[in-house]
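Take just one protein record:
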Amino acid sequence: MKFFHFHRRRTIAHRVVCFTCVGALGMAVNLLIYNPLFAMAGVTLASAVANVAANAFNYVLNNFWTFHDRRRRGLRFVSGYGSYFLCSSLAMAGTVVMVWAANHYLTPFLFQTPMLPKSGLGRLAANGYQAGAVLLGAALSFKLNMNVTWGRDADEPEITELKLHEPGKPGVEPAVRKAPAHWPRPYHEA
């Protein structure tokens, strides 16, 4: 029963665990898309397409589970994916570059051939390149998305939604950032 309520906690450690679980599912999606494309399109294109598809899958699950208290809905869901994609694109670009570098520099050393074989150990090595690169990009992606994509509480307005108040004219006051209810914790005086 505790696992069912696990997603309701808001600590960083719990978010890291949830983000890791979503990332593991995203890695499976990534490799399921990468393997058929690897045989048809080559290493670099297959890596890029698999990364974008897994990125969209991860955003939906992270929005629903990892950051459920800051969940984006409606148009914010779309703008949130744009923000998530931009933050994750650095990690995705790094993944594609690492796979390309491993294919061009590590493959000749391991297989004594300039091209990665498309079957047997070559397929295993290609999956290892992809998985290792994705794992390295995950930490950067978490930090950026935690602060940028889901950095505000759900009830706080986006920067594009803020309205400036001109002195002397009636209007909407600018939104003031208030501390979330869970921080700082009130301590009762004795």
Remarks:
- Residues 6-158 form one domain.
